[in-house]
C-alpha cells in the first residue's frame, strides 16, 4: 500500500529528454564559437554579460531655423528663451520675408515643445514680442499645463518623488492667477486622472494653509505684539510669521 503511494504514474516514466537527433536542425551552419570576452564576462550565476558598444538612442536634432531665429532675436530665442506672444508667427513672417512658412511652423512647434521653453512658461513670465519686450500675461492654464509636463519629464530621470515640489509650484501658480481655488481648478482641470489628483491635493494643501494663516492672523491681532515678539512668543521663525500674515491679509483684501 505504501509502495503504491510513492510509485510514479506511468506518464512520468516517459518524461525523458529527447536525443539530440530528434531536434530538427534549422541551421546547417556550424555554431560560432563563444567569444572569450563573453565567457569571462559571465558572473558566478551565469548571467549574460551586458552588450558592449551598444549604440545610444540618437538625440533629436534641433531644427536649423531655430539657430537663425536666435541670431536675429537673441532675447527671445536665446538661452534662456522667453515666452512668445500670440501671433509671433505672423510677426516673424512680416519681419523676415525670406522665411518659408512651413519651415517656420515646424521650427516654432519644436521650440514650443522643448523642455527649456516649457520651463520658462511654467515660471509664469509674461509673453514677449520680437524686441524681447513683455506684452501680455500667460493664461493660467498654459502655466499649469507647462508645469505638469516639465515635472513629468523631470520625474523620468529623478530617483526621488517630485510630487511635493509639483504641488508647491501649482499652489504658487494658483496664487499668481488671482482666481479662487474653485475657478482655478475648473479652468485647468483636464482628462488625466493622475494630473487631476495632484491638482486636487495641491489645492487642498493650499486651503489648509489658508486656514492656518487666518488663525495666526487672529492670534497676532489679539496679542498686541510686534511681529518679531509674536514670533518669539510662539517659537516661530520671524520670516515664516511675516509670510503667513501677509498671505492672510491678501486673502482678506481679495
Describe this structure in words.
- With 254 residues, this protein is mostly helical.
- It has a domain at 62-138: ProQ/FinO domain (Fertility Inhibition Protein O, Chain: A, Domain 1, Orthogonal Bundle), CATH 1.10.1710.10.
- The chain has 14 helices and 2 strands.
- The protein has helices at 2-6, 10-13, 36-41, 64-72, 74-77, 88-95, 101-113, 115-122, 140-157, 163-177, 181-188, 193-223, 227-234, 238-253, and strands at residues 127-128, 134-136.
- Strands 1-2 form a two-stranded antiparallel sheet.
- α8 (115-122) crosses α9 (140-157) and α12 (193-223) crosses α14 (238-253).
- The chain is elongated.
- Mean pLDDT is 82; it is low at 1-57.
Overview features:
254 residues, mainly alpha, Fertility Inhibition Protein O, Chain: A, Domain 1, two-stranded antiparallel sheet, 14 helices, 2% strand, disordered N terminus
Topology:
Layout: H1 2-6, H2 10-13, H3 36-41, H4 64-72, H5 74-77, H6 88-95, H7 101-113, H8 115-122, E1 127-128, E2 134-136, H9 140-157, H10 163-177, H11 181-188, H12 193-223, H13 227-234, H14 238-253
Antiparallel strand pairs: 1-2
Helix pairs in contact: 8-9, 9-10, 10-12, 12-14
Amino acid at each position: 500500500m505504501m509502495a503504491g503511494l510513492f510509485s510514479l504514474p506511468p506518464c512520468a516514466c516517459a518524461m525523458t529528454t529527447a536525443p539530440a537527433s530528434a531536434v530538427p536542425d534549422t541551421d546547417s551552419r556550424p555554431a560560432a564559437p563563444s567569444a572569450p570576452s563573453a565567457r569571462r564576462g559571465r558572473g558566478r550565476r551565469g548571467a549574460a554579460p551586458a552588450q558592449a558598444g551598444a549604440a545610444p538612442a540618437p538625440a533629436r536634432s534641433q531644427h536649423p531655423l531655430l539657430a537663425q531665429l536666435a541670431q536675429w532675436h537673441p532675447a527671445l530665442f536665446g538661452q534662456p528663451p522667453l515666452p512668445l506672444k500670440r501671433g509671433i508667427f505672423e510677426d516673424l513672417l512680416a519681419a523676415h520675408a525670406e522665411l518659408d512658412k512651413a519651415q517656420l511652423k515646424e521650427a516654432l512647434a519644436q521650440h514650443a515643445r522643448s523642455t527649456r521653453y516649457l520651463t520658462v512658461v511654467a515660471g509664469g513670465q509674461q509673453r514677449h514680442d520680437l524686441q524681447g519686450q513683455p506684452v501680455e500675461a500667460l493664461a493660467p492654464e498654459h502655466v499649469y499645463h507647462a508645469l505638469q509636463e516639465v515635472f513629468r519629464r523631470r520625474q523620468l530621470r529623478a530617483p526621488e518623488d517630485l510630487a511635493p515640489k509639483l504641488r508647491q509650484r501649482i499652489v504658487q501658480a494658483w496664487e499668481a492667477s488671482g482666481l479662487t481655488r474653485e475657478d482655478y481648478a475648473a479652468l485647468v482641470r483636464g482628462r488625466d486622472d493622475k494630473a487631476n489628483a495632484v491638482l486636487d491635493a495641491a489645492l487642498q494643501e493650499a486651503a489648509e494653509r489658508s486656514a492656518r494663516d487666518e488663525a495666526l492672523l487672529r492670534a497676532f491681532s489679539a496679542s498686541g505684539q510686534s511681529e518679531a515678539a509674536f514670533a518669539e512668543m510662539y517659537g516661530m521663525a520671524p520670516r515664516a510669521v511675516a509670510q503667513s500674515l501677509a498671505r492672510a491679509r491678501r486673502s482678506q483684501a481679495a
